[in-house]
Design a protein that fits this description.
about 650 residues; 16 strands; alpha/beta; 26 helices
Length: about 650
């Protein structure tokens, strides 16, 4: 390993630049030819961890290599694995909540009893979650360590919490889960603390008897899964039993009796506290009468005893994270549109959330009914309106090839979502329906009332959808991470987006969608950037999308400004955390390779682009008669916005205009 690193450093010193993949590959292959043996001696993925280990644990040896800070930066660029992971400007960490009964029973949705509803245990993030007992602390620290070993800067982290519908979980579990996410980020500044805490937690879970190894979990759940797949038992009933969701300990969590409902009186948050005290949450599914499998002393019931935290404890960790080495710059949760209420949005803001992923799937009432979605389009519209007025970024899940759909109807359905003023999401997960065993869709496949689209039908449809996507919307994904062996029929190609890109290249039509235009690894001089403003109307706001555009229509950064309709604010004043005359910055994002906090970055970051976007947004809001502007800041960006003239004001930070 050391000899290979020396050879790589020698080439870096000669060229004063990171090595291209083919140049790196030549060095590695040449070294492997020098070393006798039947197996490959050196692999790229092992080089950076070897270097990091030497620097940390064998500093005297490392110093003999004479690596300067500039050379180290080039070496990391050369050896970084999967550079796209942080090309958008932040390190993304996805975690899953524990399995829990779901309020819906959609026809296409997988019923894997080892996972939260709709997820499958072979998906990468799901595997990580299972290995770590779905513990948020263990998931975050394990993922950040891996990203670090891959050569990524992890100072700025976006946390994505998946697991079906967030608000279906007990309130105390929600608070504890966020508490542990922030605790993990804060502890990452000290490796010894992380190692000690992780070992304690692993021992704690092991003592409960909860399995975490793949084979053990398969054996534990096999009989229950077989009953669910055969239709002899429901997912909800089975999960209640397997995870002790109906025990006395968990019922205490369900009703929030172990939480700290401390009063909140600062500014706009007082309204939201009142909402929390007066509105009733949607009732949780009742436990089955026969819950003998969910004994109070079972492993998951035992874990529920310590999976609690108070708001006061959470807020202390949030304050610490404002200046931590690893800061939360975005926090995303997953929910259903019918679960979006003012009370729950206020709760999410207190937890630190900044973005909502919402399962929309379709805006065609007939298709929603045929697929047992159980949510009407009017409820989806209200969810978007509330999310926007509360300042959240909206991330819609949209599916093609559902029962009753055709390529033409799907194309029209998608255009409605991106064009109708009720919706116009900021981001979209656009993926085809895949047939998974144990779902209600299987019967329709067998009687030929549903069929998967051919590859060409699917590629053509997705290409049309991309072309219909406006410049203020980002298509984040085009496939689910479902393993091919779990898909009975339908698309199994993991490079589906690449096939769509090839189709788009043939058409030679301009693509406006954000992800296709991100500057990513490229660079643009400041004098090459121009500021573009795109205004559009929604049913309750006037939005302005400000973007820094580089040659070739590449995007280097953007800001989402939302100016609420005065009539809407007046009509819903009792439910809202904002007052009349207040605009909202819903997102500021500057692209480029992640730069460490307080360090000069590469590409677009740390060049004042965000500051200029904010100043222009303030000017626009002022010109339109607004007297104040809020920002839905993440916990780790509060300090940045204070420097931009914003002050803490309840659920948001605010600046007078």
């Amino acid at each position: 390993m050391e000899k290979t690193l020396q050879n790589i450093l020698g080439e870096i010193r000669r060229t004063n630049a990171p090595l291209a993949p083919d140049a790196l590959d030549r060095i590695i292959r040449a070294r492997n030819r020098e070393v006798a043996g039947p197996v490959r001696y050196v692999a790229k993925k092992k080089l950076l961890p070897f270097y990091q280990e030497a620097k940390e644990h064998r500093p005297e040896r490392w110093r003999t290599w004479g690596v300067s800070p500039a050379e180290e930066a080039l070496l990391v660029r050369t050896l970084q694995v999967k550079p796209r992971r942080t090309a958008s400007g932040v390190a993304t960490v996805t975690v899953l909540t524990k399995p829990w009964p779901c309020s819906s029973a959609c026809l296409y949705c997988p019923n894997d009893v080892r996972m939260p509803k709709s997820y499958l245990h072979d998906e990468p993030a799901c595997q990580r979650a299972e290995r770590n007992w779905f513990d948020p602390y263990l998931q975050v620290t394990a993922r950040l360590r891996t990203l670090h070993q891959m050569g990524h800067v992890t100072d700025k982290v976006e946390l994505i919490v998946l697991g079906g519908t967030w608000s279906d979980y007990p309130e105390a579990y929600q608070i504890w889960y966020m508490h542990e996410l922030f605790r993990a980020l804060n502890d990452m500044g000290c490796e010894a603390t992380v190692e000690r805490e992780s070992e304690t937690r692993r021992e704690q879970y092991q003592n409960t008897g909860i399995a975490c190894e793949r084979d053990d979990l398969a054996a534990w759940a096999s009989e229950a899964q077989a009953r669910v797949t055969a239709g002899d038992a429901s997912y909800n009933e089975t999960v209640r039993n397997l995870y002790a969701c109906g025990t006395r300990a968990d019922n205490a969590l369900l009703h929030g009796r172990s939480t700290d409902r401390d009063a909140v009186t600062n500014g706009a948050i007082a309204n939201c506290a009142a909402i929390c005290n007066t509105q009733k949450a949607k009732p949780e599914p009742a436990a089955p009468k026969d819950s003998k499998d969910a004994a109070p002393n079972s492993g998951w019931a035992a874990a529920a005893q310590w999976q609690t935290a108070t708001f006061s404890q959470l807020e202390a960790l949030q304050r610490e994270n404002e200046s931590a080495e690893h800061r939360c710059v975005g926090l995303v949760v997953e929910t259903r549109p019918d679960a979006v209420t003012p009370k729950r949005l206020a709760m999410l803001r207190r937890l630190g959330c900044t973005k909502l992923q919402m399962g929309i799937q379709s805006l065609d009432e007939h298709i929603l009914t045929a697929n047992h979605r159980g949510i009407g389009v009017d409820r989806m519209q209200r969810a978007f309106e509330l999310a926007r007025i509360f300042g959240f970024k909206t991330h819609a899940h949209f599916m093609t090839n559902l029962l009753g759909a055709t390529p033409d109807s799907d194309a029209a359905d998608y255009r409605r979502m991106v064009e109708h003023p009720a919706f116009k999401p900021d981001e979209i997960k656009l993926y085809p329906c895949a047939l998974v065993d144990g779902t209600g869709l299987v019967a329709h496949w067998r009687d030929s009332s549903w069929r998967p689209y051919t590859e060409q039908e699917l590629v053509n449809l997705l290409a049309e959808d991309v072309l219909a996507t406006p410049p203020f919307t980002r298509i984040s994904r085009m496939i689910r991470d479902i393993s091919a062996h779990d898909i009975m029929t339908g698309n199994k190609k993991v490079n589906l987006r690449q096939l769509v890109d090839l189709e788009l290249a043939k058409r030679a039509q301009p693509v406006q969608e954000i992800r296709s235009r991100e500057i990513a690894f490229g660079a643009a001089a400041s004098d090459e950037l121009s500021l573009s403003e795109i205004a559009y109307e929604t049913t309750n706001t006037r939005e302005v999308f400000l973007q820094w555009v580089a040659p070739g229509n590449r995007i280097a950064g953007f800001l989402r400004l939302s100016m609420p309709n005065a009539d809407y604010v007046g009509a819903h004043a009792a439910d809202l955390p904002i007052d009349a005359g207040e605009a909202m910055i819903r997102e500021v994002h500057v692209y480029g390779r992640v730069a460490g906090l307080h360090q000069d970055g590469q590409n677009a970051q740390h060049r004042g682009l965000g500051h200029m976007l904010i100043e222009r947004a303030c000017d626009i809001a002022r010109e339109n008669g607004y007297t104040a502007i809020n920002v839905i800041s993440a916990i780790g960006t509060r300090g940045y916005y204070r420097k931009q003239g914003f002050t803490d004001n309840g659920l948001y930070q605010q600046r007078s205009l």
